[in-house]
Amino acid sequence: MRAPHRPLRLVLVGAAGLALVAGATVAAEAGSPRHGNALRIEVLSSAPDQVSAGDALVEVSLPKQVRPSDVVIRAGAADVTDAFDLTSDRTLVGLVDDLRVGRTTLRAEVRRGARHGARSASLRVTNFPESGPIFSGPQQQPFVCTTARGRFDGRKILGQPIVDNQDRQGIAVAREDADGDYPQDGRGYPTADAETVGWSANCAAERRIGYVYRSTTDNRFHWLDDPANAPADTATTTTKDGQQVPFVVRWERGTVNRFVYSIAALAPVGDADPERPDDALWNRRLVFSFQGGVAIGHAQGTTSDSAMLPADLLGRGYGVMWSSGTRTSTHYNLQLGGETALMLKERAIETYGVPDYTVAVGGSGGAIQQYVYAQNHPGIIDAAIPQYSYPDMVTQIIHVGDCELLEHYFDATDRANPKWKDPEVRQAIIGLNGTKEPKNLSAGEIAQWNQLYGAMQALGYQVMDRAPGSAAPPLMECKPGWFGLTPLALNPTFTDVQDLDKLAQGTEGVQWTHFADLVNIYGTGSDGYARVPWDNVGVQYGLQALKDGVITPAEFVDLNAKVGSWKEARDMVTEGAPFAGATTPQNFDPWSSRNMNLSPGGDAPAPRRSGDLKAIRAAYASGMQFQGDIDIPIIDLRPYLEDELDMHNTQQSFAVRQRMLNVDRDASNQVIWFADARPQQDYDPTLRAFEVVDEWMANIARNPRKGVSGNKPARAVDTCFTTSGEVIAAGPKVWNGVLDTKAAGECTQRFPIYSSSRRVAGAPYEGGIWKCALQPVSKAVKSGLYGSWRPGRAEIARLEQVFPEGVCDYRKGDVGKPKGHGHWR
Fold first, then answer.
1. Fewest 10 Å CB contacts: which of 168, 202, 278, 825?
2. Cα-to-chain-centroid distance, residue 584
3. How many CA atoms lie within 13 A of 305 on its CB side?
4. In terms of Cα–Cα distance, which of 606, 611, 610 is closest to 593?
5. In what residue span(s) does the DUF6351 domain sit (predicted)?
6. How far apart are CA 142 and CA 505, in angstroms?
7. Average pLDDT of the residues in 493-506
8. What are the DSSP E strand ranges found in 701-813?
9. Model confidence at 104: pLDDT above 60
10. What is the pLDDT of residues 372-411, one digit of tens each?
C-alpha cells in the first residue's frame, strides 16, 4: 500500500495531552527498558484494545542502526511485512488486515543474522467486529434497518441491508433483479408482493465508494460515474493552500457499529483506485460532522446530504466523517455514539492516514457530543466548534422536566389566579423566556398554538394574555422549545421512532424512554423498568421570584404544595391529546398530567419524586453528564434565538464554562461567540471559527509547551457579532456579569440571558444537580433563605408539611454524585 501521511505528534500531544490521537505505543519486549536500540510498534488508527473490522494501521519505528529491509513484522503467526512501506521519516507503516476477532500479538523484530543489537517489540491488539460493540454493552433489539431509505441525487446511497438471519428478526430483505431493483414502497422497504430472501437484524450494508461533483448549474453535488471525466459544468474550488481545482469528491459509505457512515474528501480528477485514494488535495485535517435532534434509539437513523457532504468544508480540503450513530435524532446514547465515533475515525485513518488534527462541528445534540466525547475519549477530537450548545443532554431533563409541571399548575390547578396570565410572571418562576409576542413563528406554528389555546379555553383552562393585535398567542419557551420532551424522556409507552411497522418481530416489551435506551448504563430496578434519576424532593419552585416580590408567600407555598412530580415509569400510561388520540374533554392533556403525581385532593401536598441514586451515580460514572474536564480549543458559537423562544437558550454556553471553571478555575480554552439573529439570522460565524481553529492548532504545533490557552490566536476571544458579521465587542470582559457580579459587559448588555426553574429555586448556574442535599425548614428560615419574608409559626408548619424531608441546600452539591468521582477514561 502507499504509505499514509505521517502524523504531527506535537499537535496531538500539545492539543489534548494525549499519548496519540487514537492509538497507543508499546516499545521493547515486556520487562525491558525503552532504549534507543529498541524497535517500537504502535497502532495509529485506534487504541490497541479497540481495533475493529479486522484491520489496523500500524507503525514500526526503527533504531538508527537497523535497516528497514532487515525488519520482520508478524500478526500472530502470519508474516505481514509486505503490508508495510517506508515513510520519509524512516518508519514502517502498513495496514494489517485479516485480524481475527479477539486478541492478536503484533511483533516487530530484526531478521536472524542481521547485525543490529536491537530489541524486538510486541503489542497485543484486540479486534472487535465491524458491527460492534466494543464497550457499549449488549446491542438493542429490535433495531430498524434504514439503509434502503437513503437516496442521493436519485440513486441509492447504500441499498438493502445484508441478510443475517432466516428467523424473521429485523427488516425483510427482497430479492433484487440484475439492476438491483425490487418491489418497494416510498421508503425503500420491500412491498408485500416482493420475494423475501431473509431478514436483517444488524443492518449491515456493503461498503460503497463513488464520486460526486459540484455543479455550477444548480450549486449542488451530483454523481460522477467516471472520475477521469468531469462534466463541463463542474465547479472549481480553492483549497486552503490556494490551489484551484475541480470540485470532485471521493465519497465512501457503509455501516460501522450498525450505523450508516460516510467519509468524503476532495479527489483529483482521474483518481485511479478508489480503494487507495489519491490524497493530494486533502489538507491533512479531519472533521467530525455531528448532528442533533432527539430520539429514543432502536433505529439505524437516516442520512443527511448537507452533513455528509458539507461543500464549504470539502471545498477547503477537509476530510469529513459522518455517521447516523453520531446524530442524536437517531439516539441519545452517547456511550454508543462515542464508540461509533471512535470506530468511524479508525476507518478514516486507515483510508487516509493520521491527520494533523481532528476538529468537530455540529449544533445542539451535535454540540453536546463534542463536549461529552472530548471528556470521555481524550484525543478523539483535538478542537471543537459546538453550535448552539448544551453541556450534555441528560441534565437538561432536570429543569425541562419541570416545564409541564409548572404550566399545569398555572393553567389548570390555580387557574383562578389572574397573575399567571402574564408570561413575565411565569418566566420569573420557570426561568426560561416567555413573551406575549413570540417572534418568527411560521403560519403553521401560529395555527398550531392557537388551536391548542382554543381547546384549553373551551375546556375552562387558563391561558396567558395575548398582545393587542397579535396573531400569535403568548408562549413560554417550554411550549415551542420543549413541548413533549418529558413524555419522550420518561414515559415508556410513548415513542416517535419511524418505521417500526417494518419490523418483522414487532416491538412488544420495549420501554420507550431515554433511560431504557441507555439501560446498559442506568440499569434496571426491581420493578423491571430502567432506573431514572429525575428528582424534585426539596426543590422550592419560584424561590427567587418570592425574594424578588413577584409572587407572594402564599402563592409560593401553594405552588410548591400542588405542583407535584412525575410518576414512576411502571405507573405511566398512554399520553392524551395532542400527543395521542382525539381532542375530547376526557382525552385532552397537553401537560401529560395523567402521568403526574398531583395533590390527592384539597390542600394535601402533592408528593415529590425521589430519583434513583444508582441511576444518578451511573450518569456521572459513565460520562453521560459533562463535568468540564477538557483541555482542547473550543469555539462555542450560537445565533441569539431567545426572542424566538427557541430551545437552544443562551445560558447553556455559560453553563458549560462554569462546569469547566469548577474543575480547575480555568476555562480559557473555551471562547463564546454570539451572532445577532434579530430580526433574522444573516451571519453564521462557523467558517470564521474554522479559520481561527486552524491558527490555534498551528500555534500549538509550533509551541506545544505553551499549551492550549497559551497558544490562542488574537481572534480566539469572546466575541459578539451583528447580523451582518461586524464585531460588536471582543475580549475577555464582554461577557462580564453572566457568571460574576461585575458590571455587565458589552455583549452581556446586548444579549439578555435567561434562567431555568432550578436556578430560580436556588441551584447553581451550571445546573446538573439531580438530588440536592436537604436542610430542615427551620434551618432555612434562620439562614435567611427566604429573603425579606420571615415565615410565622403557622407558615413554617405549612412549609414543613409541604417539605417533610426538608428543602434544598444547594451549597452541598449533588448528594447522588459518587464520592471520589474522577474521570471517565
1. 825
2. 38
3. 14
4. 606
5. 41-817
6. 8
7. 93
8. 719-721, 727-730, 774-775, 807-808
9. yes
10. 999 999 999 999 999 999 999 999 999 999 999 999 999 9
- C-alpha 371/C-alpha 374 separation (Å) is 5
Per DSSP, 276 falls in state: S
Question: Residue written as cell 448588555?
Answer: 749
> Rounded to 5 degrees, what are φ and ψ at 639?
-75, 150
**DSSP result, 314-359:** HTTT-EEEEEGGGBTTT---HHHHHHHHHHHHHHHHHHHB--SEEE
- 559 and 414 in contact (C-beta within 8 Å)? yes
Which residues are paired to 155 by β-bridges? Answer: 152
Judged against a pLDDT cut of 50, whether residue 16 lies above it is answered with no
Q: Residue 722 gets which letter from DSSP?
A: -
Residues 44, 379: Cα–Cα separation, whole Å: 12
pTM: 0.94
Q: Which three cell numbers stand for residue 17?
A: 495531552
Dihedral over Cα of 508, 513, 516, 517: its sign: positive
Residues contacting 244, CB < 8 A, separation 6+: 236, 237, 238
List of domains in the chain: 9-128 (2.60.40.10), 147-355 (no CATH), 626-754 (no CATH)
* Residue whose C-alpha is closest to residue 663's, from 391, 334, 399, 357: 391
Q: Is the pLDDT of residue 611 over 80?
A: yes
Q: Name the pLDDT band for 116 (thresholds 50, 70, 90).
A: low
pLDDT at 722: 98
Which tens digit of pLDDT belongs to each residue from 642-675? 999 999 999 999 999 999 999 999 999 999 999 9
3-state secondary structure of 178: coil
Report how far apart, in Å, the C-alpha atoms of 461 and of each of 281, 285, 447, 486 are: 63, 56, 19, 21
- Please report, for residues 290, 338, 387, 487, the alpha-carbon distance to residue 328 in angstroms, rounded to integers and kept in the order given: 9, 12, 14, 17
